[in-house]
Specification:
This protein is mainly alpha-helical. The chain has helices at residues 2-12, 16-28, 36-47, 52-64, 72-84, 88-100, 108-120, 127-143, 146-171. The chain is elongated. The two termini are 33 Å apart.
Length: 174
């Protein structure tokens, strides 16, 4: 509870990490009573600064309907923003949704492009977490035409460039 008082002070000064932590506190009931609409509001404030975890959690809340009306299209938009910031969990969500047409029109080329982005970060995953992604990569490689695979490779390079540029904005010289 005392920590949340400090987070409130920091959040009132625009510190996105404090905004995220308040969102987490209200979502989980850690130090505060669970209040999902308030949690969503804090996550959205942190997301304005492109906080990856906040972006992902807003997507998750829309996907599950926690604290907000369930909206898969809105969830996809938030997951995509987080994916472009480099959040691997959101990249998995985006790829899965593109494959299944969940909240977005099914697009196998874009699905494969995000799988390739994930493959470039394979070392971030535990072996058991990587296996289902590898299965999808193998499936996509068999399903797509050579021309579509090439388009996916090109698009994955665009995504990786955007992620690298966003990383420099967040962690580069200020």
């Amino acid at each position: 509870e005392i920590a949340n008082q400090w987070y409130e002070k920091a959040a009132s000064q625009g510190y996105d990490d404090a905004e995220y932590k308040l969102g987490h506190s209200y979502r989980t009931g850690r130090g505060e009573a669970i209040n999902l609409p308030v949690a969503l509001s804090w996550y959205e404030k942190a997301a304005e600064a492109n906080d990856q975890d906040a972006l992902h959690n807003v997507g998750w809340m829309y996907s599950t309907g926690q604290g907000v009306k369930k909206d898969e299209s809105e969830a996809y938009k938030w997951f995509l923003r987080a994916a472009k910031q480099g959040d691997a969990s959101s990249q998995v969500e985006v790829a899965t949704r593109l494959k299944d047409g969940q909240g977005i029109v099914k697009d196998t080329v874009l699905w494969y492009s995000w799988l390739l982005v994930l493959e470039a970060q394979k070392d971030q995953f535990q072996a058991d977490d990587w296996k289902p992604i590898q299965v999808q990569i193998d499936e996509a490689a068999k399903t797509l035409s050579p021309a579509d695979r090439l388009r996916a490779v090109d698009q994955s390079h665009v995504w990786m460039g955007e992620i690298a540029a966003n990383d420099m904005i967040h962690y580069g010289p200020h």
